[in-house]
Amino acid sequence: MFRQAFVKFVENELSPHIEAWEEKREIPRWVWQRMGEMGYLCPWLDEKYGGSGADFGFSAILNEELARAGVGIGIGLHSDIIAPYIQDYGTEKQKSDWLPACARGEKILAIAMTEPQCGSDLQGMRATAVRDGDDYIINGSKTFISNGVFADLVIVAVKTFTVDKGISLMVVESGTPGFTKGKKMNKLGMHSQDTAELFFDNCRIPVTHRLGEEGKGFSYLMEKLQQERLICSLCSQGLAERMLRDTIAYVKTREAFGQMIGKFQHNSFKIAEMATEVEFGRVFIDNLVADHMAGQEIVTKVSMAKYWIGEMANRVAYNCLQLYGGYGYMEEYPIARHYRDVRVHTLYAGTSEIMKLIIARKLGL
């Protein structure tokens, strides 16, 4: 019932605007506020913080359906990847100050890890926070930050030197002196999801804006990357299913050489291959969601899912566009946008190569 209601909401209130958002390269704030009003942001939050106390299954549905609709990952990033940091590591004051506004869509969240010279190697980051009495002074820059343009609160990963050069997490509010946002980055795909560079020049924040313990940031990031990669896998799966569904409908109507192109053996075999891979992905991701909801440790399997489903979705995009022929290269067909958007699925939240490295290490290699 929840899925059906959300699908109807997406069809009526989001899908009609997607092309405009893509052209303008942003999702307007009213969308966040409307999602919050409907209870679709951070549904897992306790009611006292503005949530519904729902389980992760509801988040899985939201992320799958947003992916199928072609709405960027920014909303799922806000609700199910970043807000949990505040919930799990924040003080009671931090949670009561920030989470209700996040659930209402009044404050948009971003997390800043990647730096111009440091992507997958988080321990190589150079941004710093130096303690100065009751404040921290932050210096450095971050890049490829999703939601970076419109973010009201940014969780920034920095080096703090008082604890063995460990990484700490700091919450910086938009408008803080010394914190500036670069221009909206011009990306290959996911145009409606804003991405920016962030700069910190003697940016002073109170110690009360540190999230969790000083020096524990790296372990916090590693703990939360498990769910982040699960969310990314759900998005890859949802988009693969959408592309396959649309392509099957297309090959049943497009004629060439006197018959529907789906009737040609080569094309029907391609569809059969893709349908099989997509089904494998669905079974795997459903089991993985169940394991995660049961509180099991899923680092190895979620790394497999992030790698394999992301790569599978890219194969599906390539083969589906090929079946559209020249029409697939036209922006009026959604497959063109999906083909561009899905490419980043093997890059963000850990590249396919990093996922393989994690898997190999977990296997004792």
Detail the topology: elements first, then pairings:
Elements: H1 2-14, H2 18-24, H3 29-37, H4 56-69, H5 74-89, H6 92-104, E1 109-112, E2 128-132, E3 135-146, E4 153-160, E5 166-173, E6 179-184, E7 195-206, E8 210-211, H7 217-251, E9 255-256, E10 259-260, H8 265-293, H9 299-324, H10 334-341, H11 352-362
Helix pairs in contact: 1-4, 4-5, 4-7, 5-6, 5-7, 7-8, 7-9, 8-9, 9-10, 9-11
Could you characterize what this model shows?
This protein has 365 residues and is an alpha+beta fold. It has 3 domains: 2-107, Butyryl-Coa Dehydrogenase, subunit A, domain 1, CATH 1.10.540; 111-214, Butyryl-CoA Dehydrogenase, subunit A, domain 2 (Beta Barrel), CATH 2.40.110; 218-362, Butyryl-CoA Dehydrogenase, subunit A, domain 3. Helix content is 50%, strand content 17%. The protein contains 11 helices and 10 strands. The chain has helices at 2-14, 18-24, 29-37, 56-69, 74-89, 92-104, 217-251, 265-293, 299-324, 334-341, 352-362; strands at 109-112, 128-132, 135-146, 153-160, 166-173, 179-184, 195-206, 210-211, 255-256, 259-260. The strands form 3 sheets. It has a 4-stranded mixed beta sheet with strand order 1-4-5-8, covered by helices on one side. A 4-stranded antiparallel beta sheet has the order 2-3-7-6, with no helix packed on it. The protein has a two-stranded antiparallel sheet with strand order 9-10. α1 (2-14) packs parallel to α4 (56-69). It is globular. The protein starts with a helix and ends with a helix. The model has no long low-confidence stretch (mean pLDDT 96).
